[in-house]
Amino acid sequence: MQWFERWHASLDEALSTLPSPELCPSGLLRELFEVCPVAKRIALVEHGGEPLAVVPLKLTGGLWRPVTTWVLPGTLFPARAGQEIRALAVLQTPVFVGWWRQGDSPPADPAISQRRDVPAHRLPCVEEDEAYWRKSGVLNKIRRARKRCAGLGVEVNRPGASEWVLEHWGRLWASGNHERVPDTPERLAVARWWEPRGRHVCVSLMDGDEIAAAATVFVQDRDVIGLCNFRRREYDRLLIGTRLFDAVHQWALASGMALIDFGSDHDYKKDWAPEAGTKSELVVEAPPSLPRRAFRAVKTRLKASLDARAVS
Predict the structure, then answer these.
(1) According to a count of CB atoms within 10 Å of the terminal CB, is the N or C end of the chain lower?
(2) Could you name the CATH architecture of 120-276?
């Protein structure tokens, strides 16, 4: 295994022999790494003298994680088929993995030391007023929002709109000493790469020439995956947030999309779509060696014995 602090010709050579993730060709992978503003490094993992994986990592929240985390669905890093967890275990450091729209559940692997499964909310894209919205009660709110926002126009991929929503979103959700969410540059790179190619889409609500609200989504296998959204608060009286989600749905329906993935983590998403599938948050690290496991087991039993004596 080799570590690199900057992009190196050896990485391009290795990538030429590895399967390229569908949504992250080598040119985009390099751009994601180079625009990343936090501490970063790249591992070239080999097996039998041949490349096994190229793993670009960034340090966020005290843990290393792939630079693609939460910015590209179904994408970790270039690796031999099914060897992603094995490659991470070789790194000998804990790595956080967002297992998001990978197609399959995370494998059962001793290198996965932590795992949390989070329900996702997904809605088949079938009709203008979805039956689920009637059950959840959000349909009446959608209809009110349509009336109140009748004076606003809808534009898809307006020049500069993706940058507008991502920059505003990044500043809104910034925490600590950050001026914006640390992965904002990577999200902007994804927009620059995939919007001209039809995978990254921005739906905007326009008040004349001004953007009142906008949402970015990603298209994967006719599924529309929610990414970021932002609205100007002075339009809240119009229920503009509701109208924005409705406009995304109308675009998806008109474009022949099969499903909208609203994501996880926020209660309001239950109103828009039922639970369907999960995303997983993993921590991968090399499992302890047999002597270390034995020592840990003895230490645990000794502690339990001492605690029992203290109680008695």
Answers:
(1) C
(2) 3-Layer(aba) Sandwich (3.40)
